[in-house]
Amino acid sequence: MAMFLFFLFLAYVFFFHTNAQMPGFVSIDCGGVDQFTDDLGIEWVPDIQFYGQRAKLSIPSENRKQYTTLRYFPADDWKYCYTFNVTSRSRYLVRATFLYGNFDSSNVYPKFDISLGATHWSTIVISDATTMEVRELILLASSPTISVCLSNATTGQPFISTLELRQFNGSIYYTDFETKFFLSVSARINFGSVSDDPVRYPDDPFDRIWESDSLKKANYLVDVAPGTEKISTVLPIDVNRDERPPEKVMQTAVVGRNGTLTYRLNLDGFPGSGWAFCYFAEIEELSAKDSRKFRLHLPGMPEVSKASVDIEENAQGRYRLYEPGFTNLSLPFVLSFSFMKASDSSMGPLLNAMEINKYLEINYGSQDATLIASLTSRFSLEAWAQEGGDPCLPVPLSWVQCNLDPQPRIVSIFLSGKNLTGDIPLEFTKLTGLIELWLNGNLLAGPIPDFTGCPNLKKIHLENNQLTGPIPSSLVNLESLSELYLQNNSLSGTVPRGLLSKNLLSNFSGNKNLHYGKSEGNHIKIIIGSTVGAAILLLAVMASLLFMCRRKKRASEEELTALPSQKLVSFLTDAATETAHSFTLSEIEDVTAKFGKRIGSGGYGVVYYGKMKDGKEIAVKVLTSDTYQGKREFSNEVSLLSRIHHRNLVQFLGYCQEEGRNILVYEFMHNGTLKEHLYGPLIQDRAMDWIKRLEIAEDAAKGIEYLHTGCVPPIIHRDLKTSNILLDKNMRAKVADFGLSKLSVEGSTHVTSIVRGTVGYLDPEYYVSQHLTDRSDVYSFGVILLELVTGREALSNESFGPNCRNIVQWAKSQVENGNVRGIIDPSLGGGFKLQSMWKITEKALLCVQPNGRLRPPISEVLKEIQEALLIERRSELGEEGDSGTIESAHSASHAGSQDLGVFEPYISYEDPVAIPTAR
C-alpha cells in the first residue's frame, strides 16, 4: 500500500492558515514538526500534512531551527506543489530557500526547477552543501490561490527548506506590466551596513531581506572604488511610507571621497529587462558652501547617464528619502556601474540602498485550467485530484497529456480505475482539444453525455462502469472517432447505425439490454503512407550517396594534410595535461601483460584488457590512426574527458603518448556494448527484456543530458550509437568514445563542422547544412531507441525489405501503415506494457524528425523514458492493468511531455528608451 501511495500520491495540496504578525504573513518550516517563533518574532508552522519525506540537517554553522529540516521529493516526472490562499489583486513577496546539507548522504548536488503556477521561476542548482540558495518573487495575485511547485529534477532529489509569503499593503512595486510579468528579485543591497547581518523584520515590516554590502559572496559586489567610506546616523529618516526601504537601511550609506563610487555586480537571472531603483538620503551635515551633485554612469548606456542627482534638493531636505530609478531597463548579467561627482559639486556621491528586479513573463497556463480545477474540486479527497498547479505546466499532471501550444490544451485524460463515481463529469465534454478519454474501470453511472464539444476526440474508453441509458447518436458526428469501448455497462436501446458503419474499433458486449440494428459491417481504418514513405526513401538514398562521396573526398584531403609519422605532435592543451594522468608505456605494458588480451577492435584501433596493481580492471585503447585527424581525435578525447565526470559516462583514467603511440585508458566495462546484447554475440539464448532496455536508455540519456546541459560550454557527442554505449558488471549503461565530440560555441545556435559520425545514426540535417547542434545527438539517440524497440540494426541489407536498408524510414513507414506491432522485437514476447512501448516508439519517431527544430531536447526524451519505466514497474507490482490496445500515434504537436523555455523579451511597449522615474 505504501508503494502504491508513493506512485499515485504526487503532491498533496496544502492550504496554510496562520495568525501571523501581519495580514498575509505565512512562514512554512518545510520538514518541521511543530510551530515556533524565531528570534526575529516570525511565527513558523510545519508542513506536516504535506507529501514527501522530511530530513534533519546537522550543519555547525546553521542553528536557526527552520533550516535544520527540509522536505524532499522523488526525482520523477511529477510536480510537488504548495498552495497558498491569497487576496486577488494584492501584491505579495514569495520567498523559497534551499539548504542541501547533504541530507541524503549522496553528495550528489541536486538540480531542479521551481515554478509559480505555470510560470517557470528558476532552476535551483546546488553547488555547495552548506550554502543556502534563496529565490524571491514579487507578484500581483490574479486569483484566490497561488501554487509553488518543484519539478524536473535533473540530478539528485528536489527539496525545499522554507517557503514564505509576505503581503504588501500598497503600490511600491506597481508597474505598467504587472499583469504580464512577475518581478524576480535579483539584488537588494544595504550600502554602508555596519555589520554583515541583513536588515529584515521587524525593521522592515514586510520582511524584505536587505543584504549588507560587506558580504563578499561570489555573486555580490566587487571593484569598490578607492576612497569609498561608510557613514551612518542615528537620526530619524523620513521614508514617506512604510513600503519604502526601512529607516535602518537609510541610516547607513557609502560616500565616494575621491569623487566616485564604482561597483560591479552579478545579477541573477539576467540579461533581460529589469526594474532598478536607487535610494538616497542626505545623512551628512554639510556646510552652507558644500553641495553634493553626481551622475549615474552605466558603460555603453549613455541614455541613462544624463540625469544629475542633488539629494537634498530632490528630496526637499536632509534626512528625507529620494528614490530615482527605471521601471524598464535592459541590464546585463555583470553590471558595472558608477556614481561620479559633478564638476560643480564639492562632495563626492552618496548611496544608501539599491534594489534590482528582473521581469519574468507570466505564463497563464493551459486553456483548460479552469475546467480541471472545477473537476478536481468535486473529487478533492482523491489522490489524483490533489496534485495542484496547472494541469499542463511546467509538467503535466500524472493523469493528463497536453499539446505543445504556447497556451496548451489537454489532449488525453487517463483516469482508468480511479474509483470515479456518479455521472460522467461534464467538464470532460468541454475540453475542446481532447483526443483520448480513458475512464474505464470505474463506478460511473448515468447516461453517456454529448461529446460533440470535443471535435477532435478519437478514443473513448468507458468500459467496465455502470453506465445506463442509450448510446447517444451524437457520437456519430465525431468525425475523428476511431475507438469506442463501451462493454460491460448497463446500456440499453439500439446501437446507432452510423456507429456501425464507421471505420471504428469498438466493443459493445456485456450490455444485456443493448441491441444491434442493421449495419454495413465494422471496419478497421488503415492509413497508407506510400507517398510519404517514398519521399523519405528517396531523401535517405540521396543523402547516403552524397555522404559516401564526401567521405572519399575528405579522406584524400586528410591524407594530404597528415603529419610525418616519425614526428610526434601533441595537440593536448595545458589544462588537459595538468588534469589527466599520464601513463608511461612501460606501465601500460605491465598492466596489460604486454597487450596480451585483446577484447575489442574497430576503425579507431584495438582495445586490450588490463589490471592495475590495486586490482582495478581497465580497458586500454590503442589508436592505430597516425593521421592528423587521428591525433586530433585522440587529443580531443583526452581534453574533454579530463574535465567531465558523470556516473553515466565511461570513466577516463589517463593516457599515454610515447614512441608514436596514442593510448587511452578507461575503466573496464564488464558487459561489453549495447550493440552486442541487442544483436551480437552476447545475446546468447535469452534476449534483453524490455525493462532492462528502458533502464539502459535512461542511463544513456542521463549521460547525454549531462553533456548538453551540465557542461559549460555544452558538449555535442557527435557519434552516438549502440556500440558506444557500454555496460558495467551491473548492466548499467555509460556513454563512451568522445573522439568526435565538439564543444558548443556560447551564444551560438550551432557549430559549423566538417560532417563526421556513423552512417545510419547521422543527422541528415547536419549532413546537408554542416550545422551541428545538440539536436544532432538527439537524432542519433532516436535511432538507438528504435533499435531497442525493434531489436534490429540501424542499417541492414536484409532486415527491412528489398527497398529499404535504414531503420528510420522502415519504422516510419510501418507506423504510418498502421502496423505498430510489426516493429516490436519478437523476442520480447508479451513481456511489456503496450503503453510504455508506444511512449518510446512515439518519442523515437519525434527524435528522428528531418527538421532539427522539431526534435525534443534530450531532457524531454529522458522524462518519457522514465515515464515508460514507471508504467512497467507499476505493472510488476500489479498496480495497473493494460488496456489491451496500442495507442494510436499523435501528431508531433500533440506528443510527449514538455520543457518550459522562459521567454525573456525586452519590454518596450511604447517608449523604446528607458525613462528614469522618481517616486
CATH level-1 class of the domain at 676-889: Mainly Alpha
Q: Can you identify the CATH superfamily of the domain at 676-889?
A: Transferase(Phosphotransferase) domain 1
Number of helical elements: 16
Largest sheet: 12 strands, mixed
Distance between the terminal alpha carbons, to the nearest Å? 59 Å
| Computed structural class | alpha+beta
Gyration radius, rounded: 32 Å
Tell me roughly what share of residues is in helical segments: 10-25%
Q: Give the low-pLDDT segments.
A: 1-20, 518-578, 745-750, 880-915
List the helices and strands and how they pair.
Blueprint: H1 2-8, E1 26-29, E2 36-37, E3 43-46, E4 53-56, E5 69-72, E6 80-85, E7 91-98, E8 111-116, E9 119-125, E10 133-140, E11 145-155, E12 159-160, E13 162-167, E14 181-190, E15 211-212, E16 228-232, H2 247-250, E17 252-256, E18 260-266, E19 272-279, E20 293-297, E21 308-310, H3 311-314, E22 324-331, E23 334-341, E24 350-351, E25 353-361, H4 369-378, E26 400-402, E27 410-414, E28 421-422, E29 436-438, E30 443-446, E31 459-461, E32 466-469, E33 483-485, E34 490-495, H5 497-500, E35 505-507, E36 513-516, H6 530-561, H7 574-579, H8 585-591, E37 598-602, E38 605-611, E39 617-623, H9 628-641, E40 652-658, E41 661-667, H10 674-679, H11 690-710, E42 715-716, E43 725-727, E44 733-735, E45 742-743, E46 751-752, H12 764-769, E47 771-772, H13 774-790, H14 807-816, H15 834-847, H16 858-876, E48 916-918
Parallel strand pairs: 1-3, 14-15, 27-29, 28-30, 29-31, 30-32, 31-33, 32-34, 33-35, 34-36
Antiparallel strand pairs: 1-13, 2-3, 4-5, 5-12, 6-11, 7-10, 7-13, 8-9, 8-11, 10-14, 14-25, 16-17, 17-24, 18-23, 19-22, 19-25, 20-21, 20-23, 22-48, 26-27, 37-38, 38-39, 39-41, 40-41, 42-45, 43-44, 46-47
